[in-house]
Amino acid sequence: MQDITGLSFDELKQVLAKWGQPHFHAQQIFSWIYKKGIIEFDKMSDLSKDLRKHLKENFSICDLELEQLQKSLDGTQKFLFRLKDENFIEAVSIPTKKRLTGCISSQVGCKFACSFCASGLLGFKRNLNCSDIINEVLYLKNNSSGRLVTPLETIEQGKRTGVSLTGLTHIVFMGTGEPLDNYDNVLKAVRIINSDYGLNIGARRITISTCGVIPAIKRFSTEALQIELSVSLHSADDKIRCRLMPVNKIYPLKELILACRQYIEKTKRQLTFEYVMLKGINSHLQDAIKLSKILRELKCKVNLIPFNPVKEGQFHPPDKEEALLFKEQLLKSGINVTLRKPRGQDIEAACGQLRLRYAKK
Ligand code: SF4
Q: Does ligand 1 have an atom closer than 6 angstroms to the CB of 117?
């Protein structure tokens, strides 16, 4: 049975028209699901009994089963979901003082096999369809808490200072999978997440992350959307990048940076580069100097992310001093840079870790 969350607003209106129902019911149904968080047709009290029955006979809603939930001391929550076809996917909610970010998967597994990423280790199974993606977001929206809990707070039981948030404020497509490799489903879901009728999360609060699939970056630059694009770079050296990210053999750095430059020129938008820092591989001062050279004059910012270790992996995060030196070098070159704090280290929050352990079991 099809999940109703896979329908855009216009598609739902078309279904209702086929059933001889007025199209304003589409607004009521969207409002129940996306605004009020109701995922049972029987509770949609302003719809007639007949329409509710018809909906129940033809659609499911939010057909996603929670298999496991892990909660970190820092407030990060990791959800492992079982899909109808018995595949597993992960999503993570990450609270900070002012945000509650949902990190969403776009595929079951991933084709791109980055060597530091647990998601690549099980290979690619399938694209998520629009409803799978929307259901992750809805589940997080309805079940995450924005309470930021620090280890200190857990020691001093009851003494709490974090800010409470309800619902999701930001969405990042940085979970399992390459979002631009599942372009149509991801963009359809993004439009529902962004629309007034849907979750109404501002376009600038939605980020799509890519490992550097150049044709898809070009296509994305033609979309009339203000969605943020983030490119995972992880090295400014072709040899190192090929080792870390096999996609670099198809789309090497020079071509990727050119595509990024063209994207910035065309969209007049700033681009973000993600840089996972790996000790002894890409986090030395020399790596920062190389990175500054290729990013100079680009309207961009860089997120430095100390590696979140994977048990099965061979990589480690750099020392704090090395990470700070790296950041200083970029700042000296006039590049806007943030050094991220690792989150959810006590709950395997890095992309694909929980799913990998579960699959092995
Ligand atoms: S980092 Fe992203 S693109 Fe690379 S294997 Fe993991 S999920 Fe795929």
A: yes
Ligand 1 centroid distance, CA of 194 (Å): 24
| CA of 158 relative to ligand 1 center, distance in Å | 39
Q: Rounded CA gap, 140 and 118, in Å?
A: 22
DSSP letters spanning 228-263 = EEEEE---SSHHHHHHH-THHHHS-HHHHHHHHHHH
Confirm if 171 and 206 have CB atoms less than 8 A apart.
Answer: yes
For residue 307, report the distance from its CA to the centre of ligand 1, in Å.
14
Annotated active-site positions, please?
90, 351
For residues 307 and 315, is the Cβ–Cβ distance under 8 A? yes
Q: Is the CB of 211 under 6 A from ligand 1?
A: yes
- Per-residue confidence of the chain (361 residues) as pLDDT tens digits? 999 999 999 999 999 999 999 999 999 999 999 999 999 999 999 999 999 999 999 999 998 999 999 998 888 999 999 999 999 999 999 998 889 999 999 999 999 999 988 887 778 999 999 999 999 999 999 887 554 444 344 333 333 434 344 579 999 999 999 999 999 999 999 999 999 999 999 999 999 999 999 999 999 999 989 999 999 999 999 999 999 999 999 999 999 999 999 999 999 999 999 999 999 999 999 999 999 999 988 999 999 999 987 666 689 999 999 999 999 999 999 999 999 987 776 766 555 566 656 555 5
Which CATH number does 65-360 carry? 3.20.20.70
End-to-end CA distance of the chain: 30
Pocket probe mutation, ligand 1, options 178, 208, 274, max atoms within 8 Å of Cβ: 178
CATH number of 2-60: 1.10.150.530
pTM: predicted TM-score of the whole model, two decimal places: 0.90
Q: Is the CB of 274 under 6 A from ligand 1?
A: no
Range list for CATH 1.10.150.530 in the chain: 2-60
- For 37: left if phi > 0, alpha if psi spans -120 to 50, otherwise beta; the answer is left
Could you tell me where in the chain the CATH 3.20.20.70 domains are found?
65-360
